[in-house]
Structures are given as structure tokens and as C-alpha cells.
Amino acid sequence: MAFFSRFAAVLLLAVLSPVLLVLAVACVASQGRPVLFRQHRAGKDAKPFELLKFRSMKDLRDSTGKPLPDEKRVTGIGKFLRRSRLDELPGLINVARGEMAFIGPRPLLPHTIDELGNRGRSRCRVKPGLTGWSQVNGNTLLSLDQKIDLDLWYVENRTALLDARIVLRTILVMVGGEKLRIGAA
Questions:
Q1: What is the mean pLDDT of the chain?
Q2: Distance between CA 150 and CA 158 in Å, rounded?
Q3: DSSP code of residue 107
Q4: Model's pTM, two decimal places?
């Protein structure tokens, strides 16, 4: 299964390369360089890796050097990328490298996993994903505890049928936006 996921990610990167190029040019035009946001996240077994996404914000700071609030830094293209989830497309590189899966809990910062203790370690029993159960059940509309509960439910109940359901719901989120859908199955 891991080989298939990695192969599918490479194939998708090739097929989507024109889209990736257009989005990269739009990012440079609206917010400058770099095009990619890179951040260390916790992967399977909490092993750190560098997550890749399209950058959606400018690096604007106040007079003390502190970053301005997200809503003042997110660009128009950034809003579009986030809402449509197209900012996640560079994550296909993470899947191709074997650091992520297509479906799984979103990768969190290593210190967040540490702060979650046993819940964080349990969540890291599977590879993180480009999309997952908490992302299709409300994502930014949920508290961190709600997301972790949904992620842990996924880790304990994952099946190919559930993964297919997550893929379908991901498409609905990409088209229709986030909606609160708390509840398992």
C-alpha cells in the first residue's frame, strides 16, 4: 500500500504540474517568494519531517518584529488556496517521499504532540495525511480537543471504506467550504 501511495503521488505531481505551476506563479505575484511554506511537523511515530504547502500569507510584522494577525497577512490568492485546499498540493511531495499518506490525521507541530502526551502518541501510530476525518468534519471550526478526538477515532476505526468516504467529503469541502459535522461515521 505504501508503494502504491508513493507511486500515485508521483503520478499526480506529474499530471498536476501545469496547475502547480500556475498556482506557484500566482503565489509569487501576490506575495513574493518563497512559494512554499515549510515547517517541521510530527509524522508517524512522532518522527519529524518538513511539511510542504503553498504559502498563503505575506510576512508582515509590527514595529517590534512580531507577525501581524493572520487575517492581515493572508492574501487573496491565499484565501482561495486555503478554502479550496489547493494549498495542500505540494504535500504530494511528502506523500511521494513516504512521510505522509493521502488520508490520516493532519500532521501537528512536534511540541503539540508532546503536549498531548498519550493522545499525541496514539495519534502518531499512523502516517499523517493530506486530508483526514477531522478535516472533513469541521477542521477550523473545531477546537483542538475535538480534532484530536476525531483523529483518534479515525486511528482506531480506519478502513478502506472510511478512507473512500473521507475522499468524497474532501471534494465536498473543496467545493462547498467547511461545515461542522461532528460525529463519527
A1: 92
A2: 11
A3: P
A4: 0.87
